[in-house]
Amino acid sequence: MLITNDDIASFCGISTRNSVNHILRGLREENVFQIIDNKILIKNVKYLKQYA
Question: Taking a C-beta distance cutoff of 8 angstroms, is the pair 31, 41 a contact?
Fold first, then answer.
């Protein structure tokens, strides 16, 4: 299933996909996840759990 940044924005209550892009870019830079073959690989679950 393909999920767009607009889908993520709607799900999270974020107003725009640009905000999602900004957040995802920061998480990639923090090495929290990476994208491999159009799939998200979570590398630091502990980091994400503190926001869940």
Answer: no
Q: Is the pTM of this model over 0.85?
A: no
Virtual CA dihedral for 2, 38, 30, 43, nearest 10 degrees?
90
Neighbours of 51 (CB within 10 A): 5
Q: What integer pLDDT is reported at residue 16 of this predicted model?
A: 86
User: Running DSSP on this structure, what letter comes out for residue 15?
Assistant: S
For residue 46, how many other CB atoms are within 10 A of its CB? 7
Structurally, the chain folds into a number of domains equal to: 1
Domain of residue 17: give its range. 5-49
Neighbours of 20 (CB within 10 A): 20
